[in-house]
């Protein structure tokens, strides 16, 4: 069994500094211990002297215990009251872009991951749908209706982010899931997100109201009182999105789902739509701005053989005060100049018949000087 002599609070910080030493090389361990040791882990948290821990001979393994191996290894768990779930993630090198900051697709994938892990932690299904027992009996699944993400500061390569999530009822036709994103090292809120989900029959693909049996199964794991990631009045997550017409300023036509874009349910993954939306953004915006907010309304499922068009246009800033206040929430910097921001409307549609797949809105801020 692998044993780290670091304190639990230091394990995340020490992880990037841990190195495996070859005990077969002279001088690393006394000769009488070389045969018994398979590896040595040297951990050096900031401000502490290096310590050594011997790994026992043979393949490392985790001692038997409750839950799956993944449950015991992941850095996440239910909060003390059992009504939300927190998990920590290290930003990997393949999750960042050219400027070494995490992409918005990375953020969205982490939100999806922590939501699924939350559902599993309370005993819901592991089939990718987070279904309750009654839903499985009735062949019902959850599908995304809206996703809204705001990012105040992007994490960089090797940063550790902590994401908290919880769900609650949303009228008679669905549920909502919210997230708070923090820099684990500082505790600073670096992003927030919210989503709406509706229930659909997996065979007929028709929406269905959430009945009392299903509601009773998941509400016991939800906050007793309404808890919102965006409690502000008239916040961006509530704004309607106008449909973008054919006179779009920018377009990227003929996008085709790759095999890697399909999720475990054989449909195009929700995060893929974000990438398609950004495909039609003008290069000068990508070069000089970074995405601060994205809202997507999901209107239609996309199959593996569909061909998609991405359309984008500048959206007139009808209320500049809303944009200037966007960065003033959660302890962020005061409102900057209006010219430091721009916003766009987006439309994803099927190339053949023009049927709407997705409509969206993005807001962008000038990239910080690094």
UniProtKB/TrEMBL annotation:
**Gene Ontology MF annotations:** acyl carrier activity; fatty acyl-[ACP] hydrolase activity
Is Transport among the key words of this record?
A: no
Quote the InterPro entries the UniProt record gives: Acyl-ACP_TE_C, Acyl-ACP_thioesterase_NHD, FATA/B, HotDog_dom_sf
E.C. number: 3.1.2.-
Outline the segment boundaries, as ranges, of region: Disordered: 309-334
Q: Per the record's keyword annotation, is Flavoprotein included, yes or no?
A: no
Chief location category: plastid
For this protein, the record's Gene3D superfamilies field holds: Hotdog Thioesterase
Extract the CDD domains matched here.
4HBT (cd00586)
Per the similarity annotation, which family is this?
Answer: Belongs to the acyl-ACP thioesterase family.
Q: What role is this protein assigned?
A: Plays an essential role in chain termination during de novo fatty acid synthesis.
Specify the protein name. Answer: Acyl-[acyl-carrier-protein] hydrolase
Organism lineage reads as: Eukaryota, Viridiplantae, Streptophyta, Embryophyta, Tracheophyta
